[in-house]
Amino acid sequence: MNEADIQTFWNAHPCGDHIVGGLHGQFADDYESFFAAYDDWRYRQEGHIPDCLDRIDWRGRRVLEIGLGQGAESEQLIRRGARWSGLDLTAESVERVRARLTVRNLQHEAVRQGSALSIPWPDNSFDLVFSHGVLHHIPDIRSAQAEIHRVLRPGGRLVAMLYARRSLNYQVSIRLVRRAVLAAAYPLRNGKLLRRSELLRAHLANAERSGLRRYLDLDNFTHANTDGPHNPYARVYTPREVAAEFPDFELVESYQRYMHAPPLPIRRLPGERRLGWHLWVELRARDRAGP
After folding, report:
1. Is 154 helix (H, G, I), strand (E, B) or coil?
2. Distance between CA 282 and CA 291 in Å, rounded?
3. Cβ count near 100 (within 10 Å)
4. Alpha helix locations (H) across the chain?
5. Cα–Cα distance between 34 and 145 in angstroms, integer?
6. Bridge partners of residue 174, in order along the sequence
7. 36 lies in some domain
8. Domain limits for position 184
């Protein structure tokens, strides 16, 4: 897996774009209407996000957001008083977020295209780094966390949302239900009934290309079952795995939100604090080693 594949996928599939009609589709480059529709959908679907952001005091802090999507959280942070800068791997996201900042007159410091493996800011630039739903798409997470540590001031914080291993979505929907459905559908893949489901057709095509057994390997299957069947890489985490993979940081807090496990109808079930799909973590930068 290489970063170019990940960049190509997300440049062509901006996060959530297809759900509200697409900036260059239904909204025909009407940025204000698109962002209003997108934010309305996002915070109805994931209404926990503003509450999670409110757990942190952003006022007057120099904040770097890594991975920008449509800029919804970028706006949330700016409106909460952050001295905000943004970084994204894709030109498409950078263009959209710049448009959001312009049409909504949101004050900020910088928006740059670049990689979390080589962050284009000097050492000790930020008080906080924020990343929502992005770091779990970086295969070389050890290098990324080292770069985040470098640009943080001593004692700075990283606040991130990662996909949760101990979640209903991973342990039941992805690991059991979806794999079972695909295995059962595979022998019938040329039948007319299965052709009606575009999503299932895509998964069956993946299985044909790689071989069913290899595709059903849990690591491979996870990549294709978080952000669509063409997503090249995704990983799930426990708090212990976060602590191990972010050695330049101390894990301060972790908690889970968002009951989400399609195709299971679970949105209104209790238990998101134990089984939610979103693992929120706050980490404190460890002191740098001396010379």
Report:
1. strand
2. 28
3. 24
4. 3-12, 31-45, 48-53, 72-79, 91-103, 141-151, 168, 179-185, 198-210, 212-216, 218-223, 239-245, 272-275
5. 33
6. none
7. yes
8. 168-223
The pLDDT tens digits for 59-93 are: 999 999 999 999 999 999 999 999 999 999 999 99
> What value does the mean pLDDT take over residues 251-265?
94
- CA angle, residues 134, 140, 143, in degrees to nearest 5: 100
For residue range 88-124, list pLDDT tens digits in order.
999 999 999 999 999 999 999 999 999 999 999 999 9
Whether 291 is covered by a domain: the verdict is no
Tokens of 168: 């209903």
The answer, yes or no, to whether residue 23 has pLDDT greater than 80, is no
* Amino acid identity at 167: S
208 and 266: one domain?
no
Instruction: Write down the residue that tokens 């002191």 correspond to.
Output: 287
145 and 247 part of one domain: yes
Q: How far is Cα of residue 160 from the mean position of the Cα atoms in its chain?
A: 9
- Which pLDDT value is given to residue 213? 97
**How do 249-257 and 278-285 pair as beta strands?**
antiparallel
pLDDT top residue among 72 and 27:
72
- Residue linked to tokens 């449509």: 70
187 CB-contact burial (10 Å; exposed 0-12 / middle 13-18 / buried 19+)? exposed
Examine the pLDDT at 54 and tell me if it is beyond 90. Answer: yes
Same domain, yes or no, for 71 and 177? no
Say if CB 278 and CB 259 are below 8 A apart.
no
Say whether both 150 and 172 belong to one domain: no
Of residues 236, 235, 273, the one with CA closest to residue 254 = 273
Using the structure block, give the residue that is written with the tokens 């491979």: 220
Q: Give the pLDDT confidence score for residue 268 in this predicted structure.
A: 67
CB 129 within 8 A of CB 148: yes
Q: Are residues 197 and 68 in the same domain?
A: no
94 close to 102: Cβ distance less than 8 angstroms = no
